[in-house]
Write a structure and sequence with these properties.
two-stranded antiparallel ribbon
């Protein structure tokens, strides 16, 4: 017979995981190449022992692990396709050309501001922060590094803009999921998020402007010239290459699902590589005579393996290296390990046991919203998946919000401001692990500069404590209004 865990028993696997992750940071230079994955598996084993002592059968634990991994499979497949897309877009010259022309039109002091705005626009149009970061984001990172900005700051700007769009776009899966869990409709949810989202974005933009205007770009012009010369000497920089990202963004806007859209973008990149970059094709394949054979080898190599293009500038060479699907395997391993841990914890009800006291002691509106935000962060850390961080707290708190007289959009906004926004700040979360690998910047490095993601949960908590635009359920027959007081 299944028993309920004590609070200490439920917390013990998490405390162990925190300890192991701390040791990994202290003793390993690269924690994502196996150390963090092993830590998650060891913590999952301990959670399994706790579950066994509580009377949970192995068949139930295994079933939950499999279902949890199954929920992450779309993310894993997208991650692999992003790796292949990065490869073909590199050898085709798509990313280098975006960097090449971007250096001409972007003012260095306004670059971070521009990176946020461009990423936000693309993400709103596509409804996907992942696609935005893997395409426009990679090019923006290259431009930022070329003009001398710290790559962690640039990554923070890209992620801030991309997650603004992901949060506010009606095409986004999380933007549809949050109101469904809370019990409101999509456009009421989006309109209500403007109250907290716009101030968060404005503050973020002001901070990035301040960083830009206080940065030294004295060597930027010389460096930009060197980068452009290196790219121009290696690639055919035809503007026609922009047709590839335009095509991908168009089909995503037309609601083609992410997997076929990314595959189409990958294959089109390969075709453009064969047409526009014959020298690159021959160089990657190491074959000069048989162009058909060289084309096949080069495109396949860029999709699954390492490609390092050599230019006249060593710094540019760093921008032109990709690892295809193979480069994503450590991240896939991390996601699978995190899903195993989350599945075992959920099979014994350990996560719900930890969060139940939080719900019990959340009395005021402010404390309830703060508790919801904290619970979303907790699930992003422990379950390692933003969907779980929206679905589980949404189920947990929905009735409580109704009992407190709060309209469902208050809950849905909190789920987005906290669950969606903090997912990319956790190194072993599917979002944090993916964006770190795609951009080549450690999650802990860009975290302090992902200002929009950091500010959003604090803003929603502040609005709740100050009772700003908190919508309450009116009495039957009365119009529901925003009210400013408890």
């Amino acid at each position: 017979m299944k028993r309920e865990a004590s609070l200490f028993a439920a917390l013990f696997p998490i405390l162990l995981l925190i300890a192991l992750l701390t040791f990994n940071v202290l003793f390993f230079d690269d924690t994502l190449s196996g150390a963090n994955q092993t830590a998650l598996m060891l913590a999952a084993s301990v959670a399994g022992l706790v579950a066994h002592r509580l009377g949970v059968r192995w068949a139930k634990i295994r079933e939950k692990i499999v279902s949890t991994i199954g929920s992450a499979m779309p993310s894993i497949l997208i991650l692999l396709l992003i790796g292949s897309l990065a490869g073909t877009w590199m050898i085709s010259g798509v990313v280098p050309v975006m960097i090449y022309y971007g250096l001409d039109i972007i003012n260095p002091k306004l670059f971070l501001f521009t990176a946020v705005v461009v990423s936000a626009i693309v993400s709103v149009a596509t409804g996907s922060s992942w696609s935005t970061i893997a395409t426009i984001g990679v090019a923006l990172l290259g431009i930022g590094k070329a003009i001398g900005l710290n790559e962690a700051v640039v990554a923070g700007a890209i992620i801030s803009g991309a997650y603004f769009g992901d949060k506010m776009s009606p095409l986004s899966d999380t933007t549809n999921l949050a109101p469904a869990m809370a019990g409101t409709d999509l456009f009421t949810h989006i309109r209500y998020m403007f109250y907290t989202t716009v101030p968060s974005l404005i503050i973020s933009l002001i901070i990035f402007l301040a960083i830009g205007f206080n940065s030294n770009f004295s060597f930027a012009l010389e460096n930009v010239g060197t980068v452009k010369t290196a790219i121009e000497g290696t690639f055919n920089t035809s503007p026609l290459l922009f047709l590839v990202p335009v095509f991908l963004l168009t089909i995503i806007i037309l609601k083609v699902p992410p997997l076929p859209a990314l595959l189409a973008g990958t294959l089109l990149g390969g075709i453009f590589a064969v047409i526009f970059q014959p020298e690159i094709i021959k160089d990657v394949a190491g074959i000069t005579e048989n162009y058909t054979k060289a084309s096949y080898i080069s495109v396949m190599q860029s999709m699954f393996g390492d490609v390092s293009l050599v230019t006249t500038d060593e710094n540019v060479n760093e921008l032109l290296s990709t690892s295809g699907m193979r480069g994503m395997l450590d991240t896939v391993w991390l996601i699978l390990s995190a899903m195993v841990f989350g599945g075992v914890m959920e099979s014994a009800g350990l996560l719900q046991r930890i969060t139940r006291p939080i719900v019990k002691y959340a009395k005021s509106t402010g404390s309830l919203v703060a508790s919801t935000a904290g619970t979303c962060l907790f699930f992003n850390v422990t379950a390692s998946d933003q969907y779980i961080a929206i679905v589980v707290p949404g189920r947990m708190y929905r009735k409580t919000y109704e009992e407190k007289g709060l309209k469902p959009e208050v809950l849905s906004r909190t789920l987005e401001d906290s669950g969606t926004m903090t997912s990319v700040l956790i190194p072993w979360n599917t979002c944090g692990a993916t964006q770190s690998r795609v951009l080549g910047v450690a999650t802990t490095d860009y975290l302090p500069y992902a200002f929009f993601n950091l500010i959003s949960p604090l803003m929603t908590i502040l609005f709740a404590y100050l009772n700003i635009k908190i919508r309450r359920l009116g009495k039957k027959g009365e119009e529901n209004k925003d009210i400013q007081t408890n």
